[in-house]
Amino acid sequence: MTATVDASAIAAAVREGSTKASDIVEAHLARIGEREEEIHAFNLVLADAARAAAAAVDDAVAAGQDPGPLAGVPVALKDNLCTRGVPTTCSSKILDGWRPPYDATVVTKLAAAGAITMGKTNLDEFAMGSSTENSAFGVTRNPHDTSRVAGGSSGGSAAAVAAGFASVGLGSDTGGSIRQPAGLCGVVGVKPTYGYVSRFGLIAFASSLDQIGPFTTSVRDAALVLDVIGGHDTNDSTSIPEAHPSLVDVLDQDVKGLRVGLVTDLPAGADPDVQERLEAAVGALREAGATIVDVQLPAFGYALTAYYLIAPAEASSNLARFDGVRYGLRVDAADTNAMYGATRAAGFGDEVKRRIMLGTYALSAGYYDAYYGRALKVRRKVADDFDRAYEKADVILVPTSPTVAFPIGAKTEDPLEMYLSDIYTIPTNLAGHPGMNVPFGTGAGGLPVGLQVLAPTLGEPVMFRVGAALERAAAS
Amino acid sequence: MTTGTTTGTTAAALPVTAPGVSTLSLRADGGHQLIDGYELIVGLEVHVELATVTKLFSASPNRFGDEPNTNIDPVTLGLPGALPVLNRHAVELAMRIGLALNCMVQSSAFHRKNYFYPDMPKAYQISQYDQPLNINGWLDLPDGTRIGIERAHLEEDTGKSTHLGGTGGRIHGSDYSLIDFNRAGVPLVEIVSRPDIRTAEEARQYVTELRAVLGTIGASDAKMEEGSMRCDANVSVHRPGTPFGTRCEIKNVNSIRSLGRAIEYEARRQIAMIEDGEKVRQETRHWNENDGRTHTLRTKEDADDYRYFLEPDLVPLAPSAEWIQSVRDALPMLPGVRRTRLAQATGSAPDSEAILVVVERGQDEYVLAVADAGGDVGRALIHVKEAFADEGASPEVPVADLARLTTLETSGAITATQAKTVLAEIVAAGGGDPAAVAKSKGFEAMDTGALETMIDDAIAADPDAWAKFCAGEGKAMGALVGAVMKASRGKADGKAVTALLNAKKG
């Protein structure tokens, strides 16, 4: 489906001067010109800025300088990452006209590494959704079958990478919003350990769960990007102070002797084609020398419910600042309270309103204990279950999504059905652990199936070793 | 309770209005003044802005009086994607406050207090809720009354709204509002007393003493007129021996004087209601300086539900034992300790005017230095109080000069009246030898024999007055003393003359 858009190859060629960043950018802009109208991965394509940035990279190379480890690599940024002077919308009408006066830390780091920003990608409004159908600016279509969703909430970035509009996409993952669209679009997607990547400049959905991560066409590229964007940031108190080891360096290590956990009490629901790929992957890993062990995660099935209390609770607070006073949309009314109401009624979509109401209710006096308080206990239980499982296993292998990409409109009438799309991704966020989607063949309709490698806190090195092994097995 | 991203707090078990307003008084009943048979119960919530260089969660300057909306940044404005980073210096100043108020400094956490208001940029205030930094302390008033401190916690200030047009400067009915975000994010410590205050005068003393402590430790300039110290009062009344009454919270008190007036007004309002058979409603009331009354601001029923939950953008604040100890070790001597020290040295009461005034001016070290230099400490205290009002903590007059002056007095070489005159000249000159100044003024010791001769002369000159004095007419003494003073050209010691006259009367 995609032309050669491997980030590692592009960066190597641009750094040695054998390929011009400008040519790379033109090739990607050409693909955008061909298919973007159909796919709608972007809210905004930054063609002029990308050309200018590519020229600067080429000038640096010509002057004998090294533009950095992502020299000339085209990236697509989820439109909830702040970009200085460039509209940042969260695919919501409420941020109409707002241009951030600063760059997110990840944006600064990518630019410093020589990457080229191609545009801002579509998402479910404020990252609330699993199909990018909740965007105020229209749905993003799956490049493999444009009648189907790209997943979400980072559907735009996933589709952009799958369609060859960019070789790297950045997304944010609160309950699966990187891994699920990566799975449905057949690309690699990583949600790192909470605190691995700075959240400064990521417009918050649920602050204790949100984490930025990459979409790429290979496991190696994901490692390359994480080596650039990871690390402590003094602007984010929750970013991990310790230095991270390079992930690119671990990719050549095999998986002999590693213990891969299979969850015996996983909530049922994965389609047979997905289940078949999981079993194939187990066989491949065993063949590569890994040991397969059974683990139990009894609280796994309760995680979804807890998540849909905790995430909306935090969101109700995070999104309260969109009040029409200082920036974005304002709908005038008789007094301040009426202005708040009119602005928020006009600016937010239905799913955002639903979650604000859920979260406000869950935190209210008299209901806190029964809802938010209890959800926090489940969160602790999920983390405890994982801790026990990781005594027996180095990584855990589960499906990314119960199904392949579903048709546009299939789940929009039933929020609960939509929420179930994230049943296998959410527990990781509650525990703060890393997880990655690795494409592993196809299922029904020839659509991509993705599998998740999960690991404990800061278990990225072992997760990437297993991810690379799966990738090799999938290719053979 | 543990902390971290996977745990939270149990809010329903806690008050949902202002955190930490306690009904637990540590103070024993009795001894204080009642109003119409009712006892007044007051607890104070004092907000102080910390004297940091930058804001609580961002690098913008914490500076009063700048052009509006110049000390701002993405964090201050609550722009999407901006994250708070805790200011270490603010934590240190908050710990200083806690330790100066005899609190326990403990592991703590920040919560979000959610409510909409235009000058609240994020629509939540980052504050401390059920895990405050400082708990369980006290503040002793100069007379020894101990007021319990329930907590002293860190939080951020809001911006400042100015409502224009319409009526009364309130948001409702105004034509438009202006918001200055310079104050948003300025670090505050909220100091919550226990309901241990029993009179309006005690409330004034508490705030005065608190301000002195805050200034001494360099935590805040604590100026009520600039808003860097703000005071809300929880007031209730009850008959002694019965449970506490329903309290009302009084806001918008902008001076220590107003605090006393507001409390007194509110107490009388509540007593009148009870006497009329009405019930006091729990509510927040607004003090109006102009009409001298409190007015309903909002009742308990319209109180916001703040939906507190752990602030996920910050990590728990757990100062190490070493850090706490180093802050404790660096604390300067507090006003109460200084008063006690000076009181013990001089024999005056710790809450006597001279001790209060001299310690407030920071001149107690000077007085003690006069004693160390061989001077009379009691006389030095009075001289410093009377003559050094315009001097700072380090008066210009050399310690030795004042010491010699008091020695001249104690030896009887000059009188107290003469000493005042000498000191005034020394102060004006920034120092000088008291003996030389006394000599230049013609002040010299008058022996008792000479004085008795003068007294005898005065009696002989005015036998009428002497007869009246002997008959018990006190006024008559004045004429005799005056005559002696005149004859001595002011050198006679008035007290000595009086004593001799009384002795002669027999």
Q: Terminal Cα separation of chain A, in Å?
A: 18 Å
The fraction of residues assigned to DSSP E strands of chain A is 5-15%
Q: What radius of gyration of chain A results from the CA coordinates?
A: 21 Å
Largest interface, with counts of residues having CB < 8 Å to the other chain, equals: A-B, 56 and 40 residues
Report the biggest beta sheet of chain A as strand number plus sense, adding barrel if it closes.
11 strands, mixed
Largest sheet of chain B: 9 strands, mixed
> Pairing-aware structural class of the strands and helices of chain A?
alpha/beta
What CATH architecture of the domain at 7-253 in chain A do you see? Alpha-Beta Complex
Instruction: Say how many strands of chain B there are.
Output: 14
Q: Measured on Cα atoms, how large is the radius of gyration of chain B? A: 30 Å
Q: Please, how many helices of chain A?
A: 15
CATH class category name of the domain at 7-253 in chain A: Alpha Beta
